From TrEMBL:
InterPro entries, alphabetized: TPR-like_helical_dom_sf (IPR011990)
Keyword terms of this UniProt record: Membrane, Transmembrane, Transmembrane helix
Tree of life domain: Bacteria
Keyword Membrane: yes
Protein name as it appears in the record: Tetratricopeptide repeat protein
Transmembrane portions of the chain: 251-270
Species name: Corallococcus llansteffanensis
């Protein structure tokens, strides 16, 4: 549906009350100037550049989404406007448009606030797979999809060694090329290689600025688990004088090759109860017949 605004509602734009003036960032100032000049598509481009900038504050995001919604309505793109205002209201439920805003803009904004009160605005959703058993001593990268992320919310991966008292955490960061895709990195030093296996407990959580849980998988009382197993040890030398004799080794015989009658060699395949996989061993057998 296209929302047509009267020509008199487009220029000049009425000033906002002082308490609602946005932060004086370059993108916001440039976008306002372009909007007042009626250069709507350029305004959207500048707003998007501001949204993609690193270290954008929550107040800046609120103002950028306000400008995006207003500009989108001028262009007749109600879907974009609705999405911008929804994100704004997720972070600032008490945000109000100025009284001088055009009536049709105020009507849409009022409808969105009603949807928010009735919980028809989409909640934050988190899509993430469990962490598979990692290789010790290497970083672990976790990919997640976050939809309808509220302003001011943080997505984090919490983790601890099984049996430890407190959880540590790392933040998910947004992929600029794919806005709904996020990534968290578990440092390699948190997963050292040890001689025995150990477990790591973890969970995912999205929380708002007031630390209210919006979405998650697992929790501190019912965490998910992965195991860190030792790396494969080098094959022990099976020669006399180096380690235990071969006949006292814990190797378990699993298959024996045929031994030729004329005094040829036989092949024996061995597998260890202490190792994963198989190690081929060759034993030469001399025929005792004259």
């Amino acid at each position: 549906m296209t929302l047509a605004l009267p020509a008199q509602a487009r220029a000049p734009l009425p000033p906002l009350p002082l308490f609602q003036l946005g932060p004086a960032s370059p993108a916001i100032g440039e976008a306002k100037a372009l909007l007042e000049a009626g250069r709507f598509q350029e305004t959207l481009d500048v707003v998007q550049r501001g949204l993609d900038a690193p270290d954008v504050t929550d107040d800046e995001l609120v103002e950028l989404y306000r400008l995006q919604g207003l500009t989108a309505l001028y262009l007749g793109d109600e879907a974009l406007a609705r999405g911008a205002y929804e994100k704004l209201l997720q972070a600032r439920p008490d945000f109000e448009l100025p009284r001088s805003a055009p009536p049709k803009i105020r009507a849409l904004f009022a409808k969105l606030k009603e949807d928010l009160r009735n919980r028809r605005v989409h909640p934050v959703t988190l899509e993430v797979d469990p962490i598979p058993d990692p290789t010790p001593g290497e970083t672990v990268e976790v990919e997640a999809t976050l939809k309808d992320m509220a302003l001011g919310a943080r997505a984090r991966l919490f983790y601890r060694r099984a049996g430890a008292q407190a959880f540590s955490s790392v933040d998910f960061t947004r992929d600029r090329a794919r806005p709904e895709h996020y990534r968290a990195v578990l440092p390699a030093y948190e997963l050292p290689a040890e001689s025995t296996p150990y477990e790591v407990e973890y969970y995912f959580e999205v929380a708002d600025a007031a630390q209210r849980r919006l979405a998650g998988r697992g929790d501190p009382f019912h965490p998910l688990l992965f195991q860190v197993v030792p790396r494969a040890a080098p094959t022990a030398a099976l020669t006399q004088g180096q380690g235990r004799p071969w006949y006292k080794s814990p190797w378990v015989w699993v298959a024996v090759g045929a031994v030729a009658i004329g005094g040829t060699a036989g092949v024996v395949a061995l597998s260890s109860s202490e190792e994963r996989g198989r190690v081929p061993i060759t034993i030469r057998v001399e025929d005792a017949a004259p």
